[in-house]
């Protein structure tokens, strides 16, 4: 194992304009009696916090209510009808090259990131027959935007003249927190209408960003959409291509990290929900579970939206009245559905590993897992079949797995005669919603109690991060706040550039905004 004071820090990728976020300096390891920290939640945010705390010699207890680690990227064993073992999860996630801090966490156990494999393209298909690809789009702005317009069948040069430049140009200079002051009271749908993007381009290119939040564009804050444009397209030269784990999440990611944490003395308690927190005499809290009570000098709450709301409600002395009310107002995004099918025949050899779809009713994307995941690939080779996963986001209650399967047959006609040998379905509603006007009310990493911090993709931060990267980044930030109080060195971080990349374009954006 890497010595704890020399653990690999997150690092930038190809983008030389990536921004360094320095942490407070201090001792590499706790000297004398080590402080105790409870991390509540074993998803990405909680694992990030537990990792840097343990590396600094803090005595960490990690509580996770489920039996497995990983949070919304957890996996669990299931037995198929043919008797073979498989690992089910809540579905596909893309590990973008901009996820510097998440990738830094994974490098603890996989320095070269050999557990990730890159997909060759990020194709998007509309039911009208239009098809977009990011494989040949330049990665560095502004050539990325110009390249997309030149290569996309959904965005003709004539469409440039129809754009509302006054509405579009500010996207070239996204900054935080200004982007929230400008756009948080507007919906993503309204922003796209103002810009006057061609409808086909909206469906193929921009709806992808809003659907990543599991939300309807009419409910999603335009500030989050603008931030996504900056992170993935207009502000970073990492591009829109991404990596995926080459084995199921537990085997590729979380089991190795659990062994790493165990080697650093972390007490991992899966299947152990925290019932409440009770302030302890002096400083810290008593962490109450069904197994008993343990004192913690500090706490990191790395829970999903409902979990955080519930724990705060059961801990009446936690925080102050205003903060508790803000937590209580957090909302969850609409439900999503993941259907995984084990088919008796392969899909066509030229089908991509991942395809984003639009105009096919509730179906949002199709993954052919045996294109990249070792477990699925081994099953497919043994049986001559294929493993296909269907996603539907922000769904109505009436959407069924059968409806997704019918859409699959439209998109990939060769599956019409396929027999489903096995299937698993996951309908969940536990992702955070970023509603119009909701940013100012969203809790940050710090809380009224300096011994308690928050982490997760629901947490507000002034860094340009989103989704899984926001979870990892706020996990490290939540731990850094405690390490700073204890005089211990924090975790250095990286983000995409914190403002638009080009001085002329920034000037143009400012002139447009002032006009």
Query: Radius of gyration from the CA trace?
Result: 23 Å
- Termini gap: 57 Å
Strand order of the largest sheet: 9-8-17-18-19-16-20
> Could you name the ranges where pLDDT drops below 50 across 5 or more consecutive residues?
1-6
General shape: globular
Total of DSSP H or I helical runs spanning 4+ residues:
16
Helix amount, in percent?
25-40%
Structural class: alpha+beta
State the total count of DSSP E strands. Answer: 22
What share of the residues does DSSP label as strand, in percent? 15-25%
For the sheet with most strands, the description reads: 7 strands, mixed
Mean pLDDT: 90
Describe this structure in words.
- With 515 residues, the protein is α+β, with helices and mostly antiparallel strands.
- It has 16 helices and 22 strands.
- The chain has helices spanning 44-55, 100-106, 143-151, 157-160, 165-168, 178-183, 188-195, 199-211, 222-234, 249-263, 305-313, 321-328, 374-383, 401-411, 467-485, 503-514; strands spanning 19-21, 36-40, 59-64, 75-79, 85-89, 95-96, 116-118, 124-126, 131-132, 242-245, 267-270, 274-279, 285-289, 292-296, 298-301, 336-343, 354-358, 365-368, 386-392, 420-428, 452-454, 493-495.
- The strands form six sheets. It has a seven-stranded mixed β-sheet with strand order 9-8-17-18-19-16-20, with helices on both faces. Strands 11-3-2-15-21 form a five-stranded parallel β-sheet, with helices on one face.
- The radius of gyration is 23 Å and the shape is globular.
- The N and C termini lie far apart (57 Å).
């Amino acid at each position: 194992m890497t010595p704890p004071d020399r653990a690999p820090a997150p690092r930038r990728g190809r983008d030389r304009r990536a921004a360094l976020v320095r942490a407070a300096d201090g001792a590499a390891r706790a000297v004398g009696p080590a402080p105790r920290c409870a991390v509540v939640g074993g998803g990405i945010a909680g694992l990030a916090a537990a990792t840097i705390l343990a590396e600094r010699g803090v005595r960490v207890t990690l509580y996770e209510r489920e039996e497995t680690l990983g949070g919304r990227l957890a996996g669990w064993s299931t037995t198929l009808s043919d008797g073979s073992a498989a690992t089910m999860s809540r579905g596909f996630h893309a590990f973008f090259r901009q996820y510097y801090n998440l990738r830094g966490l994974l490098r603890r156990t996989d320095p070269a990131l050999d557990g990730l494999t890159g997909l060759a393209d990020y194709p998007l298909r509309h039911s009208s027959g239009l098809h977009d690809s990011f494989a040949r789009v330049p990665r560095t702005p502004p050539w990325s935007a110009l390249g997309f317009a030149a290569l996309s069948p959904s965005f003709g040069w004539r469409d440039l003249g129809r754009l509302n430049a006054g509405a579009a140009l500010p996207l070239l200079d996204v900054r935080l927190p200004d982007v929230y002051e400008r756009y948080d009271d507007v919906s993503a749908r309204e922003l796209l209408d103002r810009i006057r993007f061609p409808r086909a381009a909206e469906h193929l290119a921009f709806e992808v960003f809003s659907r990543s939040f599991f939300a309807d564009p009419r409910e999603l804050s335009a500030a989050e959409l603008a931030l996504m444009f900056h992170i993935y397209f207009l502000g970073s030269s990492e591009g829109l291509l991404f990596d995926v784990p080459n084995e199921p999440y537990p085997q590729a990611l979380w089991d190795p990290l659990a062994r790493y944490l165990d080697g650093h003395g972390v007490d991992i308690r899966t299947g152990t929900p925290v019932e409440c927190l009770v302030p302890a005499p002096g400083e810290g809290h008593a962490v109450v579970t069904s197994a008993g009570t343990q004192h913690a000098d500090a706490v990191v709450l790395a829970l999903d939206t409902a979990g955080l709301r519930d724990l705060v409600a059961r801990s009446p002395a936690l925080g102050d009245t205003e903060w508790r009310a803000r937590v209580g107002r957090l909302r969850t995004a609409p439900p999503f559905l993941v259907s995984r099918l084990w088919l008796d025949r392969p899909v066509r050899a030229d089908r991509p590993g991942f395809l984003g779809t639009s105009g096919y009713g509730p179906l949002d994307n199709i993954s052919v897992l045996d294109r990249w995941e070792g477990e699925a690939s081994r099953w497919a080779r043994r049986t001559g079949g294929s493993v296909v996963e269907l996603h539907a986001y922000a769904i109505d209650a009436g959407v069924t797995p059968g409806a997704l399967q019918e859409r699959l047959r439209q998109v990939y006609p060769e599956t019409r005669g396929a027999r489903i040998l096995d299937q698993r379905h996951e309908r969940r509603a536990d992702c955070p919603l970023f509603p119009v006007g909701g940013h100012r009310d969203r809790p940050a990493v710090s809380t009224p109690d300096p011994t308690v911090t928050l982490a997760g993709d629901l947490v507000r931060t002034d860094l340009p991060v989103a989704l899984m990267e926001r979870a990892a980044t706020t996990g490290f930030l939540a731990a850094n706040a405690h390490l700073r109080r204890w005089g211990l060195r924090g975790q250095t971080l990286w983000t995409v550039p914190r403002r638009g990349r080009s001085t002329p374009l920034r000037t143009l954006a400012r002139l447009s905004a002032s006009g």
